[in-house]
Amino acid sequence: MIDNQLGIRKPRGLTAALSILTTYTPGGGRVPYEDEVGSDGLLRYKFQGNPQHYTNAGLRAAFREGVPLIWFFGIQQGVYLPFFPVWIVGVEAEQSQVAVALDEAQRSLPIGGVSSEIERRYSLGITRRRLHQPVFRQRVIQAYESACAMCRLRHRSLLDAAHIIPDRDTRGVPAIANGVSLCKIHHAAYDENILGIRPDYVVEVRADILREIDGPMLKHGLQELHHHALALPRRRADQPDPVLLEERYDRFRTAS
C-alpha cells in the first residue's frame, strides 16, 4: 500500500496511482503539509523527481479517471495515519504538483485563485477538520506517550491535543510544540482559562476556583493541580514552546 522510497505507490498493472505518502518530520522540522495548502484551501502534493516518472504519470491518470487514492501521513517514525478516499482534482505542471481534495465537497470547488472568499474559507475549514486536526491530535498524543500531561490519564480515547495558540489564530499551527496532550476535562478547563500553564511548565489554577468548595472532582481533579509540574515529552523539540505558553498564560492571567 505504501512506497517508502518514492512516496507514490503505483503498482504494476494499474494505470493510476494507489496511494501517496507524507513522511514524518520530527519536532523542530517543518511540518510536511504546513506550506502546502493553496489559496483555494486545497492541499498540494509534489511530483516525485522527473515529471514524466511513472509514479507521476500515475497521479495524472488518477486525475483523468477520477479514481480515489489513499493518503498516508506520518505521525511517528514508521507510523502512518491513512486518509481515504482522497482525489486528485487538478494537475499544476508548472509547479510540478497536483491539487488534492480531502472531501467530496472539495471536488466541485474552483481550483486556483478564482474561488470566492466564502468558498475559500469553506475549503480551508474542510482541510483543517479532515487533515490538520486528526494529524495534530495523533502526533501530540504520541509525543506525550498517550497520557494527559496534567493528570497522567492513559485512556487514549479520552485524550485530546489541546492547542496553546488556538487553530483559529493564523499562528496556531498544527505543530507538536503548539500542543499539549490533555484529557477532555483538563482540555476544557484549559480552554476556559480555569487552568493555565506557565512558560516554566507549571500549572496554575484560577484564584476563584481555588476558593470554591465542592465535591472530590473539584478538589482532586482541579485544585490539587495548582503549582503541579507538567509532564513533558522526552524529546526537547516536542515540548511546548515557552514563547507560545507565555502568550497563552497572559490570557489566563487576564481572565483571572
Can you describe this structure in just a few lines?
Pfam families: HNH_2. Keywords: Endonuclease, Hydrolase, Nuclease. The protein is α+β, with helices and mostly antiparallel strands and 256 residues long.
Order of strands, widest sheet: 1-2-4-5-6-3
Q: Which stretches are low in confidence, meaning pLDDT under 50 for 5 or more residues running? A: none
- CA(first)-CA(last) distance: 52 Å
Q: What's the SSE pattern?
A: EEEHEEEHHEEHEEHHH
Total helical segments: 7
Query: Using DSSP, what is the number of strands?
Result: 10
> What is the domain tally?
2
As a percent range, the share of helical residues equals 25-40%
Radius of gyration over C-alpha positions, nearest whole angstrom: 21 Å
Average pLDDT over all residues: 90
Oligomer: single chain
Most strands sheet: 6 strands, mixed
Anisotropy-based shape: elongated
Structural class designation: alpha+beta
Strand percent estimate? 15-25%
Structural overview:
The protein has 7 helices and 10 strands. It is α+β, with helices and mostly antiparallel strands and 256 residues long. The protein folds into 2 domains: 134 residues, no CATH class; 110 residues, no CATH class. The longest helix has 27 residues. The model has no long low-confidence stretch (mean pLDDT 90). It holds the Pfam family HNH_2. GO terms for molecular function: endonuclease activity. Keywords: Endonuclease, Hydrolase, Nuclease.
